[in-house]
Design goal:
Elements lengths: L6 E7 L4 H7 L5 H9 L1 E6 L6 H10 L3 H4 L27 H7 L4 E4 L14 E3 L15 E2 L1 H11 L17 H25 L4 E6 L1 H13 L17 H17 L6 E6 L3 E10 L1 H7 L13 H9 L3 H9 L3 H13 L9 E2 L8 E4 L15 H13 L10 E6 H4 L11 E5 L6 E4 L9 E3 L15 E4 L1 E7 L10 E3 H11 L4
Length: about 500
């Protein structure tokens, strides 16, 4: 392969799927296809679950979530059942850019998740990603060094982090949402191309989250067989997903055209995508029916009420609730939204009911203020919870859950004890993923969505969902040995270390 490159360009395509990239969209993605033909490519297996925060942080650090400690957008429930939204300071293992910067290398990290607040680096820059507090209100606190924000605004206008409001999805605003995605891809690409020219970088990373957003919310328009179709989908939205991919591919081509053979190139995703079905599991209702959970009242801070409250808070004021001194209120509300209607004094097992992280925690004595499960009863309660999950069937008689894992089966490291006790992989009848939604006390444990729920905005059950198989493409990898075409996401971290001499 010739001289080993000493610089690395990483382009993260959030949700990029190998089936779409390598086969179905191959002819529409000339730049990615060219890189594939010139290098090495394959499947990258995400974490379990294949969720944004654990997956990207595993890549950043080269260790699994049990070691870096990030499983979700929030911290695990503490002794008082409280949670806090995470930020970059919660990562318990340094990201590779921190190590590279400490070794004197110039690093640029643009728009990746878990990068708020941006980290100070020697001769480096960082721009936060979509999971930062209130991305629609980006300001100088999202950028390091802060002065870079002013330069970007002067040249490109208001910074675009997130393409559109993924909560309020209506048929009359989907075309507008698509246009916003297109513009955000172009904006991020233009900023990245400009920044790539500014310095003699050693590591340059850019994240495009628009493929993920498009696949979550436009899959039912794209896939004629989607169970989430009503038959009234406008044909104009069928091409949104391939068009977003195509526009990201164009940016890939522009960025690669700016570098020489001293650079290795890595394209990658944190997970892939598939369509979702209509089957929904209400996990706390299932646990209640098994006698493992008791409710106490209707939750004042349920999803619908929280969304309604936010509508009445002006955008300039919202920033104080998400990243200012009032952020603790937001944390408490989120905790109440998840588990505020559960009577913990009479509960043995409960779920935070996160669609992207189906899981169960035991209400252990010593771990929680109102813990009811002693150490000696742990195995029995686990068996009872597993039995309840295994017995849950969809309306067609098929198991709702595909696999159940103990935390120690899939994680290792000192933070494994903070993971949920049971992690679930939902089933995919006919190839379409089942979903998980918050329970209404007294409601069904398993049901089918009604047509009004088919769009599935963010925070509910989107019409496209994650799958574990992501992708990677690497060009100019010198003599680096890839043992298999299918690798774990942390195997890609080792390649970063190899190119940047961080081994």
């Amino acid at each position: 392969m010739g001289k080993k490159p000493n610089k690395l360009l990483i382009i993260g395509i959030d949700g990029g799927d190998p089936e779409l990239i390598f086969r179905r969209f191959r002819n529409q993605l000339p730049n990615i296809s060219k890189l594939k033909s010139e290098g090495r490519s394959g499947v990258s297996l995400s974490t379990i679950p294949s969720a944004t925060i654990p997956a990207w942080n595993s890549f950043f650090t080269g260790v699994n979530p049990g070691a870096h400690g990030l499983f979700d957008f929030t911290t695990p429930p503490d002794y008082h059942y409280r949670i806090n939204f995470i930020n970059s300071s919660n990562r318990n293992v340094p990201a590779f850019w921190k190590t590279a910067s400490g070794a004197g290398k110039k690093c640029a990290v643009l728009n990746f998740p878990s990068c708020y607040p941006p980290e100070a680096m020697n001769n480096g820059i960082m721009i936060s990603g979509f999971d930062c507090p209130l991305p629609s209100g980006a300001d100088r606190s999202f950028v390091y060094p802060a002065g870079l924000y002013d330069r970007i605004i002067r040249k490109f206008g208001q910074y675009r982090i997130s393409g559109f409001d993924q909560v309020e999805l209506r048929s009359d605003n989907m075309q507008q949402a698509a246009e916003s995605l297109y513009k955000t891809v172009e904006y991020k690409g233009n900023v990245a191309q400009w920044l790539l020219e500014q310095e003699n970088w050693d590591l340059f990373m850019i994240h495009f989250g628009e493929v993920d957003a498009a696949c979550h919310h436009f899959w039912r328009y794209f896939d004629n067989n989607s169970p989430r179709r009503t038959g009234e989908e406008p044909g104009s939205l069928a091409d949104v997903i391939p068009e977003v991919y195509s526009r990201v591919d164009r940016q890939v081509g522009e960025l690669v055209a700016q570098i020489d053979d001293n650079w290795a190139v890595m394209l990658m995703s944190d997970h892939g995508f598939r369509g979702t079905g209509r089957n929904v599991l209400h996990l706390n209702n299932l646990l209640a029916s098994a006698g493992l959970l008791k409710y106490r009242r209707r939750n004042l801070f349920d999803d619908s009420n929280v969304k309604r409250i936010l509508k009445y808070i002006p955008l300039p004021l919202q920033k104080y609730f998400f990243r200012g001194k009032l952020a603790e209120i937001t944390d408490r509300v989120e905790g109440m939204r998840r588990i505020g209607n559960i009577d913990m004094s009479k509960t043995y097992a409960f779920s935070e009911e996160l669609n992207y992280f189906p899981s169960i925690r035991l209400n252990l004595k010593g771990r929680f203020l109102q813990g009811t499960v002693s150490y000696h009863d742990t195995l029995k309660v686990l068996k009872d919870a597993i039995a309840a999950v295994e017995s849950s069937l969809d309306p067609h008689g098929k198991r709702v859950v595909k696999s159940i894992y103990r935390a120690e089966e899939i994680y290792s490291g000192r933070f494994t004890r903070e993971a949920p006790d049971l992690i679930l992989e939902l089933n995919t009848p006919d190839g379409y993923l089942n979903g998980l939604l918050p329970s209404e006390p007294g409601g069904a444990a398993v049901r089918e969505l009604v047509p009004d729920e088919y769009p599935g905005g963010k925070g509910s059950f989107p019409n496209g969902g994650h799958r574990r198989k992501g992708f990677y493409v690497i060009r100019n990898y010198s003599e680096y040995d890839f043992s298999e075409d299918e690798v774990e996401i942390i195997d890609l971290t080792r390649f970063v270390h190899y190119i940047l001499d961080l081994l």
